[in-house]
Structures are given as C-alpha cells and as structure tokens.
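Appendix B. Worked example

We walk through a single record from start to finish. Start with the input: the chain for Beta-glucosidase, Paenibacillus xylanilyticus, length 782.
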Amino acid sequence: MTYKDKSKSVEERVQHLLSLMTTEEKVGQLIQPFGWQTYINDQGNITLSESFKEQVENGGVGSLYGALRADPWTGVTLENGLSARDGAEAVNLIQRYAVEHSRLGIPILIGEECSHGHMAIDGTVYPVPLLLGSTWNVDLYREMCQAVARETRAQGGAVTYSPVLDVVRDPRWGRTEECFGEDPYLIGELAVASVEGLQGESLDREDAVAATLKHFVGYGSSEGGRNAGPVHMGWRELMEVDLYPFRKAVEAGAASIMPAYNEIDGTPCTVNTELLDHVLRKDWGFDGLVITDCGAINMLAGGHDVAADGMDASVQAIQAGIDMEMSGEMFGQYLVQAVSEGKLDVQVLDQAVCRVLALKFKLGLFEQPYVDADRAAEVIGSEQHIQLARQLAAEGVVLLKNAESALPLSTTGAGRIAIIGPNADHAYNQLGDYTSPQPKTKVATVLDGIRCKLAGNEAVHVDGASRANPSSQPEQVLYAPGCRIKGDSREGFEHAIEIAGRADTVIMVVGGSSARDFGEGTIDLKTGASNVSDDSWNDMECGEGIDRMTLGLAGVQLELIQEIHKLGKKLIVVYINGRPITEPWVDEHADAILEAWYPGQEGGHAIADILFGDVNPSGKLTISIPKHVGQLPIYYNGKRSRGKRYLEEDLEPRYPFGYGLSYTTFEYSEPKLSRASMTAGESVKVSVNVTNTGPCKGAEVVQMYVTDVISLMTRPAKELKGFAKVNLEPGETQTVEFRIGAEQLQYIGRQLKPVVEPGQFHIHIGGNVKDTQMAELTVKEA
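Next comes the structure step. The output line below is what the pipeline stores for this chain.
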C-alpha cells in the first residue's frame, strides 16, 4: 500500500490514502472530539468508551483534544486521572483501537495544551508566558520548549496548542498571563524560539511536537479588554503589530495555526478569507494545518451571527480555510450532508483532509503510533526539567522597587520574618491558568522556599519538589494568610497583625489567582472558560473569561497591607498574579516590591533565592504598568500623536516597558555606529559598552530601540528592534553589538508593503525604554 510505504513522499502517500477514503472517512479526519471522554479509568483499569469505539468504526476520528488534559473542565482529577505512565498506556490503547478497528488504519492526532508545561498530571509546571517573556532569555525559553516537547511526546501527544502570540494592548484582559507582553518584536523572537524548541530537527522524532500558533489574530486588542470582543484595527497596524510574531513563526516552520475567536472590522477570524488564505497561504506560503478554537464555528451562528445555522457556519468555515474543528461538533454533524446536497465542493473537503494527513505523515504517526510508557515515566517531571523551571522563574521575576537596599535579606541577620498574605502558601495560586491539578507537595510556595532557605537548605525531595525538612523548620519564620484574594472578610487580620508584630521583617505575598475549581456556575462546560456570576465563589480573578474593570488588588488585600504597615516593620511586597497590578499606595510605602507573575511549581524557591541574594534579579517588564487604570491604553509603542495628558494624570506609566532593578548597577557608554549613513539595501552595526559598576555579579538586558524621525505615515516614538542579556562580574565590561538593516528600519507603507524611507533615524540603547542613550543614523537614497 503506497500510503504505508515510508520511502514514498508525503504528497504521494497523502494522495493515495485520499483516493481510498469515503466522504464519511474524510470528514472524520477533520473532527477533534474531547479526548478525556474516550476512556474510563476505574481504579487504574483503563478502558475505552463505547461512543469512541463507535466513532472509530463509523468513519474514524482525525484527532483528539486533551486526551491527557486534567482540570475542572475535564473533570479529571488527581484521584481519577492518569499518571505519566498511565497516560502513555491510555494513548497507546486509543491509538491501537484506531489503527486496528478503522478500515484504513489511520492513527489519531493527539493534541494537548502546553503553553507553560504539558497540561497533564505529573507534567512539569513552568512559569506562565508573561514571566517567560520577562526573562528576555530566548535561549533558555527554547530549552524549556524542548523539555515541554519531550514530556508531551513521551505520552503520545503530537500537537501542542502553543505558543500564544497575542500582543497585549489592554491588561484588564484575563488572558494577559498567557502572553509574552506588549511588544511584537520581542514576541516574534520568542515565537521563533518556541517553534524551534517544540518542533526540533524533525517532527517525527520522539522529542518533537507540532506547534500551533494562536490566536490568529488581534485577540489581545479586544474592545475594553473583554475576551473575544471586537477588534478595531486597520490593516497597516494589524500587519505591523499583531501579524508580525505570527509571520516570524510561520517563517520558522510552524506546522499549525489557530484562528482567534474575535472579529476584526466586522469579519470573524474563523471565516476571514483575507487572513486565512491571502495572507497566511498566499503571502506567507503556509502549508500547514488550520484548526479552530473550541466552539468557534458555533459562534458564527450564535454570537457573531454571520451564519444562518450550523450548516451555513460549517460550510463558511471550511471554505474560508479551516481544516479541522476543535470539538468536531459542527463539522461532524453537517459536512457529509453538505457534500451530498451540493453545498460543499468535495475538492474543498479534500484539500482540508490532505493537510491533516500530511501532518500525520510528517509526525511519523503511521510508522510509530505508540509510545514507551517506561520512557514517559522517566522523562515527565524529571529533575532536569524541575531545575529548568526554577531557573526560568528566577530570571523572570522583576524587582520593581528597592528603597535603601531593603533587599537582599540576610539568612543570618534578618531576625524573625513574617510571611503574610493569601498567596504566601497557596500552591495553586502561583501556577496560572491552563494548569493540571497538583499535589501540594509538588509545588514550592514562597513560605516553602523561605523555610527551606533558612533551614540551611536542609531539604527533602517529595514528588519532585524540594521542601524544608519538617524536623528542621526554622523558628524565625512566622506565617499567616491574613485574608483571601477576593471578598471582604477581615477575620484573618487580627492573627496576621499579631504575627507581624512579632517579626523584624514582613514579606507580604499578595496578588491574584487563576486557580479554577469545581464550583457550579464557574466553569463553562463547553469551552472550559470561567463564567462570572453573582452566585459563583472562588478566588479566581484572572485567566480565560476573567476580565476586570480595574487593576487594583482584589478584596481587602490592600487594607491588610496598610494595617501591617502601621507596625513600622520593614515591608517587602511580593506580587503573584497574572496581569499588572496598579496600587500607588504600595508603590509609595513598601520598602521593596517583587513582581513574580505566576512563577510555576518552583516559584517559591526562585523567589527565596532572590529575596536572600543567592540570585540577583534580572527580569525586565514586557508590559507597561500604569499609575491608574484610566491611563489605558498605555503600551510603550503607541503613536506620537496619541495626545499629551489627562486632567488628573500624565501618560507616563508607573513602571515602563523594559524596566527592572538589580542588586548591582550598570553603566552604558554612548552607542557607536560602524558608519553614520547607509542605503535601504545596506546595514550598519551599533555597539555599546556595558559595565557592571556595582558590588555583585548580575545580568543586564541591553535593549535597542529605533525612532523614525520623519515618516510619511505616523509612527511610534520608539520601537524595540534588538536586545541581548549579558552576565557581568563586578567591574567587568562587555561590548554589545546589534545589526541594523531594513528589517529594523522598515514599516508598512501606504501600499501595505514594507518600506524604508530615506531620512533620519535615532538609535536608542539602554536598560529600559525610558532610560537610553542615542546615536543618529542617516538613510540615503540608493
């Protein structure tokens, strides 16, 4: 059989297999049911559901979504879920049935969520992308993606629904935590690293998975920061900003892409032919798979209201360029009928099927549909991956304030330390959305990290995490939660204040939560997103479906901080959260502030390493933090024509893009150009000397911005066009060099094509967007 012959080309194999398929089998390849519904786990005895078996035998199943996913939406818990080994065996069971009981023996494409770790029980939980971006360490992030691919493929997952490449324009949006930040250039660099790390040298390797870019496109620019809201953006801005990271990832070889829920100028992305065909296929040459987000086709007929019914929505979607439907509900119900009634040309159907089959052949699923369960148990949650999670967290935590060198603390001279706040010892609150349930012993909280640190690193390893040995708990560490994230209960205040009164230093660990629960009314059972209702109660104030009107601390957290501040103790504030926090009182009164985002399972150790100076903070903000929510939008690369100020406040952020303090200091020389002028077809180099002028070694993120002084179309005041993270010993100087060519100087012109205009450009280099030195460059006519 040609399609089973590995020596044949992918195209030959696809065409031969397609020629053997019925319409029902073709449509079967385009649907993706929920994977967790295919099996039953009865106290370790894993069997397949009868409904899944019936689907396989009556046309087949092209893909499964979340066969290994565990969370409140799936109902998969630590008690009834699959361990690393069990998950691999379950996928083998699923694949074996598909191969042996379908007419053509086509393996199933297993798709999983992996934006900050494989979302399965036992998987390593890395920091959320907002922190990963704050590392500004592309190589380290690529290494993380390689680790995520190893864990996912070891269990049989072959496609991941990451990276998330949305450019955040309004941080009130609940999915801010899933994104790298507000700058397209930085996101583009991380996008390329993600594709390289996830897909590796070849998709058919045991350590590679197909990357799915999402959400295509404009999803982070929704009206009012409301999830899936309309996007009001012209083509020039779309091409310059939101499309840029996707283009870079496609050029890097991304295998799959997911259209966003939102509409742009009245057209939903799911049926936007201009985006899915003209830009993606024709302009960029993308030949991979396009898969919808969950329920996106349903929204066309009930939400966007651009389709009369499910049949109309399904036909519109596949004709616009959709190849596969996550959930499979609409395609599975309507496409066979659409072909038989002449509403859908079979050639359109065939084109989609070919893309699905091609990806399966490239992944090597026909040759090796099964995985080694022993290898899964060995690879998933390995010590190497745990240490990588800790390093990433440490490099992404941002020091926002350090008055009079309040940090680092001394392990011997800090006296009694009170750890207070709702996030001080709440494991799930520091993991972020899209996280599987975790045993408490696997996650090191801030309280765990500090106890371990002050116990002289006398740690025990439990379920892959190091924790302070219970027999050596340091007596000088005191703890009280004080309050919850949300709600107005102050019943914990008295105890927290009493604890703080006995301490010399108070570390307040406050912020937000993206922790989902099983409470009725909090989970949309169709999409997994949370529903905000008056009847639901949990501490979740961030994550998918949780958009806010303000950026302040929820509940009575600020009041708790203020009451404890009255004691006159040294006050360190650690934010653990998924979007920027705007609290002017804290900015003014805290002695030091750490922004830790959601730092993952090793976050507590990483934060302790920074608090006590074993790690010098090097994280830099990838998103501007405003003084007041009324300043929004405040992203740094807005147009120069955006206006001057409000009556009450100027337009300057509290903490600018690229900002982050260190325990040492860095000095920059004036930038030097290799020559002062160039033509649009040439390039120059710009260099700067960076010196560590402080007392300890540290890492500095050197940032290069470009200003087009006069242009035919309006431009931002500064745009990031290069960065490098350098490690320097005290007194050490390094020369950092950037190349400047057409890509750094061009913008999208009136004809919607990239142009480099002759004229003056300012090249800025420094430690953040507001602290740079400048060199002048002239671009001459060719």
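Two observations about the output. The longest strand covers residues 698-708. The CA atoms of residues 169 and 221 lie 5 Å apart.
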